[in-house]
What we know:
- The complex is a heterodimer of chains A (441) and B (205).
- In chain A, the strands form two sheets. Chain A has an 18-stranded antiparallel beta barrel.
- Chain A contains four helices and 21 strands.
- With 441 residues, chain A is mainly beta.
- Helix content of chain A is 6%, strand content 60%.
- By secondary structure, chain B is mainly alpha-helical.
- The radius of gyration of chain B is 41 Å and the shape is rod-shaped.
- At the A-B interface, helix 1, strand 9, strand 10, strand 11 and strand 12 of A face loops of B.
Amino acid sequence: MKTLLRLVLAVAGFALLIPAVVSAQGPGWLEDRSRAQGPGFRLGNLELHPGFGAEAGYDSNVFFEDSDGLRGPTGSAVFRLTPHLFISTLSDERRTEGEGQESNASAPMLEFSAGVSGQVYIFTEAEARNNVALGADLDLNINPKGRFGFQITDHFQRTVRPFTGRSSEQVRNFALSTNVASAIVHARSRGGVIQSSLGYGFRLHYFEGSAFQYANQLGHQVSADIHYRFLPNTSLFWDATADQTNFYNDGGPLNLSNNWRIRTRVGLNGVITPKLSATVAIGYSAAFVKSPLFDDFDTVIAHAGLKLRLTPTTTFAFGYDRENQTSIVGLYRIQDRGYLDFQWLLARSFLLGMNFWVAHMKFGNVLDATGMALEDRTDVFMQARLFAEYRFTDYLGLNASFAYFGDFTDFEYVVDTTMGPVTDPAGFNKIEAWLGLRVFY
Amino acid sequence: MSRLRASTRSFKALAVAFALATGGLGFAVAQTDEPAPTEQTPPAGAEGELDVQRRANLSPEQQLQEAQQVQQRGTDLSRRVSVMLDEARQERDIIRVTCVNDKLTQVNANLRTVELRLTNLQDAIEAQDASRRNHEFTVIAVLGQKFVVLDREAAQCIGQDIFETGSTRVVTEIDPNNPDDDPTVVPETEVPVIPFIPPPESGDI
């Protein structure tokens, strides 16, 4: 459990720096390293965790098309092969309980983890390109439990699945590579009651397809937070980020401009009773756009959520949040979201999860290449996932997932085709189902 | 029928007799558990001295010797309580100083009375005044018992240790059922699985 906490902390440490356009399109277990890895092989002071998954699935709308769009939804069977290899310093369990346990299991001065993964996608739909997604990450944490610590992370991801409609039968390259590198300084009081961090992150988005390269961007983010911890396991916190986005290419159907987004909030997070946890936060966010064609914007942001532990292995969470997020369309968007999460672990071998959220999104000014304002864009986005995994052994699992994604909006893109400019509705409905086996150690 | 009633009466009588017999046996056993008082076993409070009633029957020489022992015990007690008082003062334990000082004052007052009564006892013996001699001896014997009580009370004087618990030590017990999620990891809002970006122009690849 401590390993899980540390990993979650490490991942969450730079989660703020991961831009909104980078989203997991791969198997769910890769998003949570604690699920992806088993006991592992010990190599001196390191652990090695290999794994491999093979899945078959169906995607009802590969290109996120509206049924009234230019080409309409296209479904495809999809096969996905997912190898991964993770390496890390010894977990807390191994240091304190397992083989070669240390007599004085004090906090290590150095924690390190790294990993690579691949996802080979094979579509039966001819217009979808078979391709290989990649992921790699590195996390080096020096003196993680000390008064002062330093952390370096790098997270690379190459996604290949289509993310928007296609206006012709041409097979297009939807590959998007994203790299986020960050450095974070941690400080904490002697007893750990007060903890703070200050970080810097550099990110790069690179669309490989020429049709999307106008949206390539690089960004800088400075983040800071302070936590005041108290019993039972709760903290009052303040955090803030300042995020600059630079679009370094010209062209494309949209007018894009460099911009700043700032965000700050205060709140409470943690345990209220053994069965109830809460997150309550309120803050302020603003977007400042360099081009005078765009309006600056500011808003209140908030988060109010409860998490119930119905049993030690059953959790149910729900809540509301309001956030200002970066976006290619409109440069930023305000998202009001309600969510439900349910997770049930039975006998340490069967995991059942449900995730549902619905959000109202209001985008910033959408301007075409000439600077002319298009209609305001407002979406209602819905996402529902159901996933289950049964573990036959500690290293073999059968997993299945079912997901629905829906975007309800009146907004229409204007797309140049060989027939001239035409409108293409931006909404879509999409269903995904997967069934597969994975081995991991 | 009459035979049945007669046998029932006989059974009741037998039961009562048995109960009385066993009760008596139990009482007898209970009595034999305690040591029977003997001439050699003095009462607990007298500490080796003869009880007041029997002291009055002592000869004048024995009474004088007994009275001198009481005086000696009073002197010893005064010295011991003085040492206790000094220790309490060195420890700056004002609560114990107050208590021990009170006992020492009483011991000394009683000791002065014993000395006075001892002189009176000697005078009564010389004057062969039996009535006065017995009276003085009885007073000295009672003062001797008072020394025993003061000795015990002085030893029971408590200090401020009982009130001062030292530096405060807080022991916090956290419910082991509390989730150990790190509260410094604040849940972040989820973003859609896709970027919102227009479809490509048909001429692009």
